Amino acid sequence: MFPLPKHVFLTRGVGTHRHQLSAFEYALRDADIEQQNLVSVSSILPPRCELISRTVGTAALGPGEITFCVMARAETNEAGRRIAAGVGLARPKDVAHYGYISEHHAFGMFEAETGEYVEDLAATMLASTLGIEFDPEAAWDERKRVYEMSNLIVDTHSIVAAAEGAPRGDWTCVVAAAVFLFTPAV
User: Fold this and answer.
1) Which among 108, 144, 148, 171 is least surrounded, fewest beta carbons within 10 Å?
2) Domain annotation covers residue 102
3) SS3 50
4) pLDDT means per 10 residues in the chain (186 residues)?
């Protein structure tokens, strides 16, 4: 059984290349997580898992390390096609309770709307587990006020990578990730 992660950081990247796999590699390089053996996990932010900066997080990683993350990835080889990948995070006020991480990969969405969408997803999942009553059809701003007034959700965050497909049929890849660390951050 694995221990619980102690820290999490958010990162994003964009890569372009004539080969699809190389575009993904360049996106991981841009996100500064290309040296890890990434393992995708689902959407739970462990209790007492501290959000740290990308700079601190990447400094704590070692080449070849098995690294768990929640990742969103989108790619296209259609010139001008808009792609986006986003990760949202919602943390409860009670640090002994778990939070949520959401991921979304999209075509046609812009960075700001993708960020709002993934924050909304994460906060809505957390709110439903905390028993916060809300109208699921209400706009994000309205639900966000309800969540804040409940005093049960401390905050939400998001990170998004968005781009338009490169010309000449080259591949463009965008990634966004919440990366977990088991060891103390530097």
Assistant:
1) 108
2) yes
3) strand
4) 89 98 98 97 95 96 96 98 97 94 97 95 91 82 82 91 95 98 75
